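[job 4471] stage=fold_predict status=RUNNING
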Amino acid sequence: MVAGYSTLLKAHPPIMTLGYRDQRVWGTKIAIALFAGGTGAGAYFMSKILYATGTISLSTAAISGWIELVLAATGILFLTAHLGRPLRAWRAVGRPHAAWISRGAIVPPAFILFVFLSLLPSIEALDGLPWREESGAWQAIVIVAMILGMGYILYTGMVISTWSSIPFWNTPLIPLLFTTASLLAGTGITQIVLAVRDLRSPVMDLIVVGFIIGNGLLLAMLIVDAYTREVTVLQSMRRFLGLHGGAAFWVGIVLVGLVLPGVLVLVDYWGNIAGVGGRIVLVVVGVSILIGGLMQRYCVLKSGRYRLPI
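[job 4471] inference complete, writing structure tokens
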């Protein structure tokens, strides 16, 4: 291990430093904001794809949609609260052509607006709206909401990866990881809704497994990539893997967020569990995925380290 580390230092000689400093600006509130916003957007995007392919019904997609709307709004709430002076948050919109912070101040509210419009016809008393469900106008609103949702998902990763002063974040793997985590969490919400409605979908089980594998591979790539970059990134990766004695990563992300739901969803697929037992399995799958998604954002943020140059 020591020999390997020495070889790495020779291949990537570090800039002379006075040490490293953990970033303390972006913490739990931002982790919740990025998780809630990305999950809400990912869940909406996935629910519409799943409905369009006949995997879930329109009513299931609508129920998921209201949950997704609340999550996306929660993301904005926590992000605004983090600013300290919410009434001045509007100033962040000034540079959408150059800054992801500005894009993040525009895209999420627009996404919420179009999601809300797309969900209104699902209320029985409002089914006479001009953009009733499955009409051309409604489909146009849904498409715009899906595009904005993908923008919201990308924002949650890009706003981190463009922070060049923290080398660990400055990689395209972060947006990719957050995107797959958001879409995975979206399938988790759909699984919970299906369980509550006493419905099952073997196709959904396979989709969940696919996203779990994809998310796990991106995590592995992020870890391997850290060992090919400068020493500051290695310091961040050590913190990433060792937060709270390693429990945050190995228990929160790997065991709870990936292994447990992966095993349970395969049990549901192959075992065809019916009744209350099957519903409990799907709820546990969904909740575990959501916990893992939150822990991913938390660990990435808390692992950010600045280099202190001489």
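[job 4471] summary: The first helix runs from residue 2 to 11.
[job 4471] exit 0
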